[in-house]
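Subject: design request, 274 residues
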């Protein structure tokens, strides 16, 4: 029985390490490399922490396995009781504190870029691309109206008569910093872009700016990461990263669709607007 428990407790840590090592091959890991450079820096922080905790995990499990294995072989040796060791306790308090302090200082610039508005790229901060309002159970997206050249105007905090609206398809241009104003209409939601490593709560009564600079074209998941009610699963949407010209063409089409009166063909409406 001693041998069984020894094997049992040694088996699980080994299984955990093997499982973690093979999981990327089965796509049980991150959904591919990050679409933004800041996301790659966040991944690097994640891997640094992962390496530290893996080293500690393997170290403690090897020590535990060794003690169990030794005890499983000898009936004569009995466990002994200790009131603890002052030196050991100082060491295992100071070492984690130093590691945590190092991590806290080391990640400050990534955190500042990600969350502190004064560190946001100025061009993104001055011209938010869209406002995204979470509500049970969809993402409402509001773009500013277009000027006479078909170029987006400035996005106002209050809705304007010529604003453009859509639901669940967030189009953004590639290669430049994009800022989104995030709001919630009802309960707390969470704006989650796993391919960009972005997750931000949408809180009723608050406007929370988020920025990112997509470096890869494509369609990426946009999900709600906060259980917000019975239809939470319906908040599966997408982020579409496209070239600047495609983005502006999309906005022009959105305007034509929105202005369509049911009689003229949408393309005629688009012509009239120009
Ligand atoms: Cu939600």
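Subject: RE: design request

Done. Sequence follows.
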């Amino acid at each position: 029985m001693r041998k069984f428990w020894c094997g049992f407790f040694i088996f699980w840590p080994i299984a955990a390490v093997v499982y973690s090592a093979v999981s990327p091959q089965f796509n049980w890991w991150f959904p591919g490399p990050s679409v933004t450079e800041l996301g790659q820096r966040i991944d690097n922080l994640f891997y640094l922490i992962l390496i530290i905790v893996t080293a500690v995990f393997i170290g403690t499990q090897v020590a535990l396995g060794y003690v169990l294995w030794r005890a499983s072989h000898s009936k004569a040796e009995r466990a002994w009781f200790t009131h603890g060791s002052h030196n050991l306790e100082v060491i295992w308090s100071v070492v984690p504190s130093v590691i945590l302090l190092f991590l806290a200082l080391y990640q400050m610039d990534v955190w500042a870029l990600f969350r502190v508005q004064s560190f946001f790229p100025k061009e993104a901060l001055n011209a938010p691309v869209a406002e995204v309002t979470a509500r049970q159970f969809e993402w409402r997206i509001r773009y500013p109206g277009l000027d006479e050249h078909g170029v987006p105007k400035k996005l106002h905090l209050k809705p304007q008569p010529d604003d453009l609206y859509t639901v669940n398809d967030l189009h953004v241009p590639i290669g430049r910093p994009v800022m989104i104003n995030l709001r919630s209409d009802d309960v707390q939601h969470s704006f989650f872009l796993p391919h960009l490593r972005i997750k931000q709560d949408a809180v009723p009564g608050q406007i929370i700016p988020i920025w990112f600079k997509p470096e890869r074209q494509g369609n990426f998941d946009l999900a709600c990461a906060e259980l917000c009610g019975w239809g939470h699963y319906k908040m599966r949407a997408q982020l579409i990263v496209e070239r600047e010209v495609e983005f502006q063409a999309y906005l022009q089409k959105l305007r034509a669709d929105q202005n369509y009166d049911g009689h003229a063909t949408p393309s005629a409406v688009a012509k009239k607007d120009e």
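The chain has two domains: 2-73+87-115, 126-273.
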